[in-house]
Amino acid sequence: MERRISKDKYYLNIAKEVARRSTCFRRSIGAIIVRDDQIISTGYVGAPRKTKDSFQHGFCLRDKLNIPHGQRYELCRSVHAEQNAIINAARAGVSLLGGDMFIYGEDYKTKKQINAFPCFICKKMIINCGLKRVISSTEDGEMKIFLVEDWVKDWIKGDILDDSHQYGK
Asked: Three-class SS of residue 12?
């Protein structure tokens, strides 16, 4: 008899399915927020509502400008999956306090799983919205669990740039 997968793996697999909606030529990333063992919000990488995404334009603006991964997000057409999950919860009037975010990511071209760690902008939003844990896919096919309170402690001791799990590194 096959063993049941853990709840964390179950929710990460759902985030993987959400990532399939991404409209980015670089990364397919999906995020879900779970509170009290219930999915309360989802989000994927994509252009703001009712605007043209990279697929509709036919190219990635950041690739065209030779911008490396992890830099100059203001020049991207897309909203990050983590941001969209937070925004979608706000649109529905749902509190995120004490919830967990699951983030799955893969390279769009190779379909290889990546370290789907939040960027600094997303980390700040995650801290401020009151989430407890972030569970991210990793390039080795596993998952990494972050406690949001640890990010806060680390940034009090050091600074944001001292963060050891930076997206794009």
From this structure: helix
Cα separation values, 66 from 61, 75, 79, Å:
9, 11, 19
CB 117 within 8 A of CB 136: yes
Task: Find where tokens 């649109």 sit.
Answer: 91
What does 51-85 look like in DSSP terms, one character per residue?
S--HHHHTS-HHHHTTPPTTS-GGG-SPBPHHHHH
Compute the distance between CA of residue 114 and CA of residue 29 in angstroms, rounded to an integer.
9
Token couple for 168: 């794009």
Mean pLDDT by 10 residues, the chain (169 residues): 88 98 94 97 95 91 87 87 97 96 96 94 95 97 96 84 58
CB 154 within 8 A of CB 120: no
Tokens of 95: 């509190």
Only one residue has tokens 């830099």, namely: 71
CB 82 within 8 A of CB 125: yes
Tell me the pTM.
Answer: 0.91
